[in-house]
Design a protein that fits this description.
This protein is of the alpha+beta class. The chain is 52% helix and 17% strand. The protein has helices at residues 34-60, 67-82, 84-92, 120-144, 149-161, 163-175; strands at residues 2-8, 26-27, 98-104, 109-114, 118-119, 181-185, 188-192. The chain has a four-stranded antiparallel beta sheet with strand order 2-7-6-5. The protein has a three-stranded mixed beta sheet with strand order 1-3-4, with helices on one face.
């Protein structure tokens, strides 16, 4: 991976110069802008976060409302924000070539766009990797030992932050046929069958 920080996202994603043009690629049926994407994912993300946090609070009980519970909540919140950068880097390491990193502070988003075409399952793995490491594993560890409240809170905050990734996985599972390759161009995602390239 060669990471290139592109700064604030202003509605345009730079093209990868020298990348081979795929003529028979099919564009995903998906959001075409961050504004459109936010309209699709914000409510599910907020509802998921509320459900997970309430779940943790119910399991922890009255201890959650003591000072130590508040400090764990605050620490998990701060760490979940710090982990946004490693989250994107984990996406990036799934690519061999260039990866562009964009920030969109207005919508509290960071995102990467990779140069390489990945198989369907590589693309799904790339989407889920940071969510598994920073969200699901801490949350499952909390379920195994409910005294690890900090991990439960961290998972409850990190799992919903991957809602855009789950949207990509959903679209990939529904739209991409077996044996296809997936690549990103601009804001959108495309698939193609290598033999029809």
């Amino acid at each position: 991976m060669k990471l290139i920080y592109k700064g604030t996202y202003k509605g345009v994603i730079d093209e990868f110069d020298g990348r081979e043009e795929i003529k028979n690629a099919t564009k995903y049926k998906e959001a075409n802008s961050t504004d459109e994407l936010m309209k699709i994912i914000m409510w599910p993300a907020n509802i998921l976060q509320l459900v997970l946090l309430v779940f943790v609070i119910v399991i922890v009980g009255k201890d959650f409302f003591e000072l130590s519970g508040f400090l764990k909540f605050l620490g998990a919140f701060v760490l979940s924000l710090i982990l946004l950068i490693p989250h994107e880097l984990l996406h990036g390491i799934c690519y061999k070539g260039r990866v562009y990193l964009y920030t969109n502070i207005k919508q509290l988003m960071l995102f990467v766009v990779g140069e390489d075409a990945l198989s369907k399952w590589e693309f799904i793995f790339m989407c889920l990797l940071p969510n598994i490491l920073f969200g699901f594993i801490p949350f499952i560890l909390f379920l195994i030992n409910t005294k690890w409240v900090f991990l439960g809170l961290l998972g409850a905050m990190c799992i919903p932050s991957g809602i855009g990734d789950y949207y990509n996985v959903y679209n990939t599972l529904r739209q991409v046929p077996k044996g296809a390759k997936v690549f990103m161009k601009g804001f959108n995602t495309y698939w193609y069958l290598p033999e029809e390239k």
